[in-house]
């Protein structure tokens, strides 16, 4: 608890400033206090948790799964093939040059208001950090270790599995930790622009009703989802890289 004490104090201070500022301005429909958001969240808890959280979670998890599979596969391909690197790496970089919010309506036109338009938005946001970080990790493996493996009769497969993959693991998890937080943003953006359920959709609907506290309530839940996913990745990282924890 002492480790996170300063962060907790800062959060409490910021919420205190927010509460005071909101009560001073006294515009709860536009700038609700944290206490008002908490009360509204409790009033809407069943709707948020059982009606709108599951669709958002489905988008996040499906989008992350697709990004992990495609991102790691492409990173491995680029790492073992210079032709693939020259062909795809510029495309991966350029995919981030176009604002996602500008593409989201196009995806909705193509895939409709169902889950897949939001999944595509989430994949577009989360694919980049996973691919680039994994690729950098594979390419950053020790040249001396690779040469040592060759002198000891190791094959390319041995070098890849015993040198490059362990080298890439920390980079992969770094990319994944970024991706899980971005996945929440991607799902919310997709739902804001076109959906029939979900936390982003609910927040947008409440905005049209000028219910400021209800706009913030699903945002709080989205933040909690992002934090939980981040912590799960941290746990998975520690379990799969016990050797790193002993350093």
From TrEMBL:
Topology within the bilayer: Multi-pass membrane protein
Keywords: Cell membrane, Membrane, Transmembrane, Transmembrane helix, Transport
Transmembrane region(s): 57-80, 87-113, 119-138, 172-193, 213-236
Domain of life, per lineage: Bacteria
Cell compartment(s), UniProt: Cell membrane
Major location category of this protein: membrane
A biological process term (GO) from this entry: transmembrane transport
ABC transmembrane type-1 domain span: 53-233
Presence of keyword Ribonucleoprotein: no
Pfam families given in the database record: BPD_transp_1
UniProt GO cellular component terms: plasma membrane
PANTHER family per record: ABC TRANSPORTER PERMEASE PROTEIN HI_0355-RELATED, ALKANE SULFONATE ABC TRANSPORTER-RELATED, MEMBRANE SUBUNIT
Family: Belongs to the binding-protein-dependent transport system permease family.
Protein name: ABC transporter permease
Organism whose genome encodes this protein: Domibacillus iocasae
């Amino acid at each position: 608890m002492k480790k996170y004490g300063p962060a907790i104090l800062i959060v409490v201070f910021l919420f205190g400033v927010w509460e005071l500022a909101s009560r001073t301005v006294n515009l709860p429909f536009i700038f609700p206090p944290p206490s008002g958001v908490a009360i509204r969240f409790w009033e809407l808890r069943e709707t948020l948790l059982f009606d709108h959280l599951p669709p958002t979670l489905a988008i996040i998890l499906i989008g992350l799964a697709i990004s992990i599979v495609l991102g790691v596969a492409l990173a491995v391909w680029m790492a073992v093939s210079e032709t693939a690197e020259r062909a795809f790496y510029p495309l991966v970089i350029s995919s981030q040059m176009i604002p996602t919010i500008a593409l989201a309506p196009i995806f909705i036109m193509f895939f409709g208001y169902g889950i897949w338009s939001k999944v595509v938005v989430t994949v577009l946001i989360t694919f980049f950090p996973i691919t680039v970080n994994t690729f950098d990790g594979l390419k950053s493996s020790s040249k001396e270790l690779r040469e040592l493996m060759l002198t000891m009769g190791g094959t390319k497969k041995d070098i890849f599995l015993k040198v490059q993959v362990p080298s890439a693991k920390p980079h992969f998890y770094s990319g994944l930790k970024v991706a899980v937080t971005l996945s929440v943003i991607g799902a919310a953006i997709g739902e804001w622009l076109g959906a029939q359920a979900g936390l982003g959709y609910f927040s947008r609907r409440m905005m049209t009703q000028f219910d400021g506290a209800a706009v913030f309530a699903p945002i709080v839940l989205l933040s909690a989802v992002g934090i939980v996913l981040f912590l799960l990745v941290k746990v998975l990282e520690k379990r799969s890289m016990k050797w790193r924890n002993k350093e």
